[in-house]
Write a structure and sequence with these properties.
Two copies of one chain form a homodimer.
Chain A lengths: L1 H24 L3 H10 L8 H14 L13 E4 L13 H13 L12 H5 L3 H6 L1 H13 L4 H14 L15 H12 L3 E9 H12 L6 E13 L2 E12 L5 H9 L6 E4 L5 H8 L6 E8 L6 E2 L10 H9 L2 E4 H4 L6 H5 L1
Parallel strand pairs in A: 1-2, 1-5, 2-3, 5-6, 6-8
Antiparallel strand pairs in A: 3-4, 6-7
Chain lengths: 345, 345
């Protein structure tokens, strides 16, 4: 899968370079049009795609008023629902459920204790009823106590072997092909791409470099407390069962400021949890670009917005329309959703 | 100053490229020796300099067992006492003192309250007696309440205008020329350089890119809590008077794991506060390099180690010797300390 994505990424990179050479050698506007069609190939022509290309053209045009130096070309991406799917539950929840099952024999008390009982009985309704608090309890109880190195290995093993219930494919197969192209398009134009996700930072870092081309140091996420100590004479970092930082809603601009220290000029999200990140980006003094992915494709992916318990997009949708932010209509704007569709064609 | 450093950095970059071309076109070992002399020109030939060059040669030699891919070439640097001086007090304390004086008219109660009273009466002994707690109180009281953008502007203004009491020069004149060369040498060899400092992250970010060539997103430091809110209809981040994270001692490996998410292969420090960072680096599975700057030059800089209240190097010095880490003897190993000495020659 990753190899496939890598070769995709490479192919897109080549086509972009080819496009650039074309644009340089032939300067009439018809050729310019051709070049732009070759960009973002999984995006249908339309307002969303055009708004991205226009923005990138503006900030990279040295002769224009909107030019931005490469070191300030910071682009931030939410992960769940923006770079990969998030239904029927955040994928990290499937990971935590698998951890509960793996650890259950060491914890006989879980049989009678929610939310663990719900997980062990496959009672998704009871699990949902435990709410956000219950899910955080699951994550903390199953992630804490081990060293960061041990946890990393568990994530690596899980991401390689676990399957999504609807597609029966590895979860990383459910990344969005058009967003992979967008990440590459931005990087090809001098942008530094960051993930800014409510998901666990240590749950993402082991695989996002291979899948998205984003290195660990460009990942911002939620995190638990850590403790430095010596085990068997070697220094280790131990995961503690306490939350340190929730990188969601109001936390996203805080996380951006903490980790990046610069205001982004482009922000990509899909839910009200990303609204403050988009507002923070939009309030900058420079040219900026804000985009919401709107989940409108029940057949190929999922359709949900204002009333969804996961990835609710309500206030954000209103604000996007009011401010003229780009709203991607997945059903209309994306030729393919997942990379594996390209193989199946 | 910054322009001068930049032109220095550029000159060093050019000489390195020239050195490389030389090495490629002439391959006998005498020429190799010449090339290495051209590297790190402010370092005297000796064990410290040679250990750096040997390490870089080993990890960049694709045919050797110690080769490390560029994306794993992470180097972390303490700031105070490692990249710039830290005597007679951490430079951020001078900043906090200036802030107390600037804000005193709005705080009549400070006249009778320590540690503010000590600052207003220039009573450095009483200030020292207030200890670490007193200094943190100063920093929190004078840094909190404003927005991050307002604070950034204050730091920028201060760093441009404030003068060090001994040298009567901007504080950024007191960066170490040999360390600037080292930063560039590592970057020229594919390393990504990070600051990992006990100092305030927001105190460093406004100027370290210009002075050290390290962008804001590669700075890890101590930080206060932040709050996202709207002021006059615009989103802002407000600095709160509570500590969020102290990036010192045990905190340094935690900060590295949080912000970088990868174990460094090279770590540079000068005090016991850096020991855990060096231990964490040394415990990695790959080739690594640990270096302590030992302040031994009373005349050109300062001489202090085991009994110094600031930048104490005691346990770290023992451990460095036990583990064979490189210990720089400033007086012996460095031809010049500060960049301005090059102008004065």
């Amino acid at each position: 899968m990753a190899g496939f994505i890598k070769s995709k990424i490479r192919a897109i990179g080549y086509s972009f370079i080819f496009g650039l050479i074309l644009a340089i050698s032939l300067s009439c506007s018809v050729q310019q049009q051709k070049k732009e069609t070759a960009l973002l190939p999984s995006w249908n022509d339309g307002q969303a795609k055009q708004s991205i290309i226009d923005f990138v053209n503006r900030v990279t045009d040295k002769t224009g008023d909107d030019y931005i130096v490469p070191s300030d070309r910071i682009a931030v991406f939410d992960n769940d629902g923006t770079l990969w799917s998030e239904q029927p539950a955040y994928f990290q929840l499937f990971f935590a459920i698998d951890r509960v099952k793996a650890l259950a024999s060491d914890h006989p008390e879980w049989k009678d204790k929610q939310p663990f009982k719900a997980v062990l009985e496959n009672d998704m309704e009871a699990l949902a009823a435990s709410g956000e608090h219950g899910i955080i309890e699951l994550v903390m109880a199953t992630h804490a106590g081990m060293t960061t190195a041990e946890f990393e290995q568990i994530v690596r093993d899980w991401i390689r072997t676990a399957k999504h219930p609807r597609f029966n494919r590895p979860f990383t197969d459910l990344v969005y092909q058009p967003m992979l192209e967008l990440l590459n398009f931005l990087r090809d134009n001098g942008f530094k791409t960051f993930i800014v996700s409510g998901g666990g930072i240590e749950f993402m870092r082991p695989w996002v470099e291979e899948v998205y081309g984003i290195p660990p140091e460009q990942v911002v996420g939620s995190m638990g407390k850590l403790k430095f100590e010596f085990r068997d004479g070697k220094p280790v970092l131990v995961k503690l069962p306490w939350i340190d930082f929730i990188d969601d809603k109001d936390g996203k601009p805080v996380g951006i400021h903490r980790f990046i220290g610069k205001r982004p000029i482009a922000a990509f999200g899909n839910s009200d949890g990303d609204l403050q990140m988009l507002q923070w980006t939009a309030a900058g003094p420079k040219t900026h670009f804000c985009l919401y992915v709107h989940h409108t494709d029940e057949e190929r992916e999922w359709a949900y917005d204002r009333n969804s318990p996961i990835g609710r997009l309500d206030k954000g949708l209103d604000e996007a329309r009011k401010n003229g932010w780009t709203v991607v209509d997945m059903k209309v704007d994306w030729k393919v959703i997942y990379p594996f569709e390209l193989q199946e064609r």
